[in-house]
Design a protein that fits this description.
globular, Peroxisomal Thiolase, Chain A, domain 1, about 325 residues, 5-stranded mixed β-sheet, binds acetyl coenzyme *A
Length: about 325
C-alpha cells in the first residue's frame, strides 16, 4: 500500500528578531504580561525581501535537501497561507518557479492556523490516490503585514516564517501518515478574522480576535481532535512519542499535553521564540525537532492545529 512518508523537513525564519521589550517601546505592553499570558519571548518579523513565496521556497529547498530529493521528484506543491503575496497567482506557483520545478501543479490552501494540517491531508490524499508521488507541503506566513500594530491585544501574539515537508510515496506498512482528520465550524467565523481583503481597495484588512472565545474553543476542540486521531487508529495515549501542536499560546499547548498525559519534554514548543506563525507553526516545530535529533525515524507523532474559521484538525504520522 502507498503511504505518504515525511521524507524531509525544512524551515525559514526571517533575519530580524523582535523581543517583547522592543514591542514595549512602541505600544503599551510589557515582557511580563506577554510571557505570563502566552509564553512568547520574541518573534521573527519579515523584512521587505522576505515574502511568503521567498520564505516558502527557502523552507522547501531545505526539505528537499533533507529528503535527498530533487525538483524532478516534486509532482505537486501545496502551500497553506492566510497572507499570500498576491491574490493570484497562488504563492505555491511562485514557489514552483523559484525552485525551478518544471512539471506538476501547485495551489494555495486557506484554513488560517489549521492550514498546514489541511494541506497535509490533501497531500496525503494525492499520494494515496496515485495522483502524485512527491508532494511539497508548505506553511508560509507574513502576519506582520495584516496585524494592527496599534492593537496590543493581537499584535504581540504573532510572528513570520515558513516550514515545509516533502511527502514521498512509499510502499510501507509501518511508516507514513496513518490518518488525518479535518473539521470546520463556519458559525464561529467572527471570533477570529481579517476585516478586509485585496478585493476591498480601501480595506486591505487587519486581524481581529476575541481572544477569550478562541481560547475556550481551542482547548475543547483540540482535546476532542487528539482523542479522535488515537481512536481512529486503535492507539492509546501511551503509544505516542511526540506531540507537535500549533504554537499559539503556551497555556493551550499545556492543556492538550496534559490531556494526553504527555510529559512536557515530549511536547515540541517553539512559541517562546517564534510566537504564533499560523500555518507555518506546525512545520517549523516539526523541522526543528527533527533537525536537533529529538524526533527520529519510527517515532509516532501527533500534529494538531486550530485557527480562524474555525478550522481545526490533526495528523497522526509514523516518522
Ligand atoms: N499588554 C498588556 N496588557 C494587555 C495586552 C498586552 N499586550 N493585551 C491585553 N491587555 C490587557 C487588557 O486590556 C485587559 O485589561 P483590563 O483588564 O484593564 O481590561 C487585560 O490585559 C486582560 O485582557 P484579556 O483579553 O482578558 O486577557 P486574557 O487573559 O484573555 O489573555 C490572550 C489574552 C493571551 C489573547 C488569551 O485570551 C488567549 O491566549 N487567547 C487565545 C487566543 C490565541 O492564542 N490566539 C492566537 C490566534 S488563534 C490560534 O492560533 C488558535
Amino acid at each position: 500500500m502507498h503511504r505518504s512518508v515525511i521524507a524531509g523537513t525544512g524551515a525559514y525564519l526571517p533575519e530580524r528578531v523582535v523581543t517583547n521589550d522592543e514591542l514595549a517601546k512602541r505600544i503599551e505592553t510589557s515582557d511580563a504580561w506577554i510571557r505570563e499570558r502566552t509564553g512568547i519571548r520574541q518573534r521573527h518579523l519579515a523584512g521587505p525581501h522576505e515574502t511568503a513565496a521567498m520564505m516558502g521556497a527557502a523552507a522547501s529547498a531545505a526539505a528537499l535537501k533533507d529528503a535527498a530529493a530533487t525538483t524532478r521528484d516534486v509532482d505537486a506543491i501545496l502551500l497553506a497561507t492566510s497572507t499570500p503575496d498576491q491574490a493570484f497567482p497562488a504563492t505555491a506557483v511562485r514557489v514552483q518557479a523559484e525552485l525551478g520545478v518544471l512539471h506538476g501543479f501547485a495551489f494555495d490552501i486557506s484554513a488560517a492556523c489549521a492550514g498546514f494540517v489541511y494541506a497535509l491531508s490533501v497531500g496525503d490524499s494525492l499520494i494515496r490516490t496515485g495522483q502524485a508521488r512527491g508532494v511539497l507541503v508548505i506553511g508560509s506566513e507574513v502576519y506582520s503585514r495584516i496585524l494592527n500594530w496599534r492593537d496590543r491585544t493581537t499584535c504581540v501574539l504573532f510572528g513570520d516564517g515558513a516550514g515545509a515537508v516533502f511527502l514521498r510515496a512509499e510502499e510501507s506498512r509501518e511508516r507514513g501518515i496513518l490518518s488525518t482528520h479535518l473539521h470546520a465550524n463556519g458559525g464561529l467565523g467572527d471570533i477570529l478574522y481579517v476585516d478586509g481583503s485585496v478585493g476591498q481597495p480601501d480595506r486591505p484588512g487587519h486581524l481581529v480576535m476575541n481572544g477569550k472565545e478562541v481560547f475556550r474553543h481551542a482547548v475543547t476542540r483540540l482535546a476532542e481532535a487528539v482523542d479522535e486521531a488515537l481512536a481512529a487508529n486503535g492507539l492509546s495515549r501511551t503509544d505516542l512519542d511526540w506531540l507537535v501542536p500549533h504554537q499559539a499560546n503556551m497555556r493551550i499547548i499545556d492543556s492538550v499535553g496534559r490531556r494526553l498525559g504527555l510529559p512536557p519534554d515530549r511536547v515540541i514548543v517553539t512559541v517562546d521564540r517564534h510566537a504564533n506563525t499560523s500555518a507555518a507553526s506546525v512545520p517549523l516545530a516539526l523541522a526543528e525537532a527533527r533537525q536537533d535529533g529529538r524526533i527520529r525515524k519510527g517515532d509516532l507523532v501527533l500534529l494538531e492545529a486550530l485557527g480562524g474559521g474555525l478550522t481545526w484538525g490533526s495528523t497522526l504520522v509514523r516518522m
